[in-house]
């Protein structure tokens, strides 16, 4: 797909602040009207300007003699491959696939998705063979797009309109991508044609793009897939939000496993860059458990390697990785791109890392070009199952559950969002980010005087503190005027003690809405 097929850049006199469309390393905006207070800002002209800007940006990154059939905008003179319905990981993979017949590898790829956001939202993700673009790249592209859009408003694109246009070709890339996943599972089982034969595996695609996994991956491997649900794409998400962190979504796949007496359940987010699983007993394998499971698999293959995670992973996960598995846990910042980039950085300075994973379900492996691919994560689980079934054909998902045996889990796990009122006089005209940093600094000072609490000796984001058998982390959101507070503790009483320590410190900041924290403490 490089980009959605479009005509020329449509002239428009409307003023658009392109930089407001940036969402970290992605672009997000409102594409459909009808929601009060959310005007459409991701229009066709705006999207076409962004696609043209990406083509121009890509030309700067590539040598002229290396330009193959690639994506971009056809009015810029470049050819486009339309992949149709696709997953985000597949789009990146198309920059690596060697397939001359289908014009791959491409030089760049654009994925049109807003993941599990509401129906009126849409967005764009960009890839080259080096991976997903970073924040600076997105800013560069949006600045270029703004200039292109302005030129189109003043008729300056007439010459571009008259230029020879590139061609659009349709390619069934998802079949190519899925066949590689099938080959990986077969290889792990000694090239057996149907290594999952007899296993009952149900998939919940949440009406996103993950339905292909049933017909193109599991069935060719011999799995029984009856009971799989919500495989047809529907951006209204009529059944549940396709999000492996969402309780309703996890309840849906857990129920499907129970109703169908399945051996394993698999759930994907909308664009399949995240995933989770459920074993035959109904035990959820997501968040810390999924990281523990993937760590166990990776550390069998690469003993002693470093596992990089985001900042909200548990103390129990650290103990599990380091004491039971013999690996090293490097807890970094929130944001899947931050986690992946940190793992790459560690490798460049001589510290071996083969897995970077976020509690949200984003997981990337060195062996898979550091691509956060939910389907590939599930293939790693299937590889383990397939290999075990060579020795014992009756083995089910217990082989996976056994791998996380010994993971200590808190009885109470909660995230509370403390919002900053940007219009409050206490900000004194400053930014919400400066205000949030002041809150964190004050909390850090207060904690240092409490004999029952201990600040984490190594921490890269916010203030992380251990005490009362648990821990808490207060940090500043990556994009929003919010301070998320994560608390994990062995009991509700212990969680309340940790929450009170935070409340005592942050109560001195009137622009901080502590309603949600008070509600938790009063329950």
TrEMBL record:
<keyword id="KW-0119">Carbohydrate metabolism</keyword>
<dbReference type="InterPro" id="IPR050060">
    <property type="entry name" value="Phosphoglucosamine_mutase"/>
</dbReference>
<dbReference type="InterPro" id="IPR005844">
    <property type="entry name" value="A-D-PHexomutase_a/b/a-I"/>
</dbReference>
<dbReference type="GO" id="GO:0004614">
    <property type="term" value="F:phosphoglucomutase activity"/>
</dbReference>
<feature type="domain" description="Alpha-D-phosphohexomutase alpha/beta/alpha">
    <location>
        <begin position="287"/>
        <end position="387"/>
    </location>
</feature>
<dbReference type="InterPro" id="IPR036900">
    <property type="entry name" value="A-D-PHexomutase_C_sf"/>
</dbReference>
<dbReference type="InterPro" id="IPR005845">
    <property type="entry name" value="A-D-PHexomutase_a/b/a-II"/>
</dbReference>
<protein>
    <recommendedName>
        <fullName>phosphoglucomutase (alpha-D-glucose-1,6-bisphosphate-dependent)</fullName>
        <ecNumber>5.4.2.2</ecNumber>
    </recommendedName>
</protein>
<dbReference type="GO" id="GO:0004615">
    <property type="term" value="F:phosphomannomutase activity"/>
</dbReference>
<feature type="domain" description="Alpha-D-phosphohexomutase alpha/beta/alpha">
    <location>
        <begin position="177"/>
        <end position="282"/>
    </location>
</feature>
<dbReference type="GO" id="GO:0009570">
    <property type="term" value="C:chloroplast stroma"/>
</dbReference>
<keyword id="KW-0313">Glucose metabolism</keyword>
<keyword id="KW-0413">Isomerase</keyword>
<comment type="similarity">
    <text>Belongs to the phosphohexose mutase family.</text>
</comment>
<feature type="domain" description="Alpha-D-phosphohexomutase alpha/beta/alpha">
    <location>
        <begin position="71"/>
        <end position="147"/>
    </location>
</feature>
<dbReference type="Pfam" id="PF02878">
    <property type="entry name" value="PGM_PMM_I"/>
</dbReference>
<dbReference type="InterPro" id="IPR005846">
    <property type="entry name" value="A-D-PHexomutase_a/b/a-III"/>
</dbReference>
<dbReference type="InterPro" id="IPR016055">
    <property type="entry name" value="A-D-PHexomutase_a/b/a-I/II/III"/>
</dbReference>
<keyword id="KW-0460">Magnesium</keyword>
<dbReference type="GO" id="GO:0006006">
    <property type="term" value="P:glucose metabolic process"/>
</dbReference>
<dbReference type="Pfam" id="PF02880">
    <property type="entry name" value="PGM_PMM_III"/>
</dbReference>
<dbReference type="GO" id="GO:0046872">
    <property type="term" value="F:metal ion binding"/>
</dbReference>
<keyword id="KW-0597">Phosphoprotein</keyword>
<keyword id="KW-0479">Metal-binding</keyword>
<dbReference type="Pfam" id="PF02879">
    <property type="entry name" value="PGM_PMM_II"/>
</dbReference>
<dbReference type="InterPro" id="IPR005841">
    <property type="entry name" value="Alpha-D-phosphohexomutase_SF"/>
</dbReference>
<comment type="subunit">
    <text>Monomer.</text>
</comment>
């Amino acid at each position: 797909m490089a980009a959605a097929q479009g005509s020329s850049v449509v002239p428009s006199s409307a003023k658009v602040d392109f930089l407001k469309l940036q969402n970290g390393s992605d672009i997000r905006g409102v594409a459909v009207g009808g929601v009060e207070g959310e005007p459409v800002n991701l229009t066709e002209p705006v999207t076409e300007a962004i696609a043209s800007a990406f083509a121009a940006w890509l030309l700067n990154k590539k040598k002229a003699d290396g330009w193959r059939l690639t994506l971009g905008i056809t009015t810029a003179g470049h050819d486009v491959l339309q992949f149709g319905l696709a997953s985000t990981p597949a789009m990146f993979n198309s920059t690596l696939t060697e397939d001359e017949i289908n014009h791959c590898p491409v030089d760049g790829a654009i994925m049109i998705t807003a993941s599990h956001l509401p129906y009126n939202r849409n967005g764009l993700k960009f890839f080259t063979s080096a991976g997903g673009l970073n924040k600076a790249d997105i800013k560069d592209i949006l600045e270029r797009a703004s200039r292109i859009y302005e030129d189109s408003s003043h008729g300056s694109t007439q010459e571009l309109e008259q230029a020879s246009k590139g061609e659009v070709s349709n390619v069934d890339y998802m079949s190519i991508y899925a066949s590689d996943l099938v080959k990986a599972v077969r290889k792990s089982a000694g090239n057996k044609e149907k290594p999952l034969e007899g296993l009952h595996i149900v998939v919940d695609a949440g009406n996103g793009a993950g339905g292909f996994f049933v017909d193109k991956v599991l069935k060719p491997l011999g799995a029984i897939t009856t009971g799989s649900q919500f495989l047809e794409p529907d951006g209204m998400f009529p059944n549940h939000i396709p999000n492996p962190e969402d309780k309703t979504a996890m309840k849906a796949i857990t129920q499907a496993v129970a109703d169908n007496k399945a051996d394993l359940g698999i759930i994907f987010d909308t664009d399949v860059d995240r995933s989770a699983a459920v074993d035959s007993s109904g035990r959820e394998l997501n968040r810390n458990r999924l990281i523990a499971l993937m760590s166990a698999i990776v550390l069998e293959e690469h003993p002693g390697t470093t596992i990089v995670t985001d900042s909200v992973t548990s103390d129990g996960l650290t103990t599990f990785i380091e004491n039971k598995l013999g690996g090293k846990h490097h807890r970094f910042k929130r944001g899947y791109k931050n986690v992946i980039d940190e793992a790459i950085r560690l490798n460049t300075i001589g510290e071996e890392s083969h897995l970077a994973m976020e509690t949200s379900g984003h997981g990337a492996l060195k062996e898979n070009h550091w691509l956060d691919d939910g389907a590939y994560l599930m293939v790693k689980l299937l590889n383990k199952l397939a290999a075990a079934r060579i020795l014992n054909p009756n083995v089910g998902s217990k082989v996976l559950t056994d791998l996380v045996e010994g993971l200590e889990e808190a009885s109470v796990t909660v995230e509370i969002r403390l919002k900053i009122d940007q219009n409050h006089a206490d900000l004194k005209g400053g930014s919400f980010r400066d205000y949030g940093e002041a809150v964190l600094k004050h909390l850090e000072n207060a904690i240092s005087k409490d004999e029952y609490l201990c600040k984490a000796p190594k921490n890269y984001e916010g203030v992380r503190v251990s005490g009362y058998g648990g821990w808490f982390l207060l940090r500043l959101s990556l994009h929003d005027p919010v301070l998320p507070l994560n608390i994990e503790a062995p009991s509700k009483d212990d969680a309340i003690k940790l929450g009170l320590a935070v409340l005592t410190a942050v109560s001195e900041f009137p622009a901080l809405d502590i309603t949600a924290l008070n509600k938790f403490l009063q329950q």
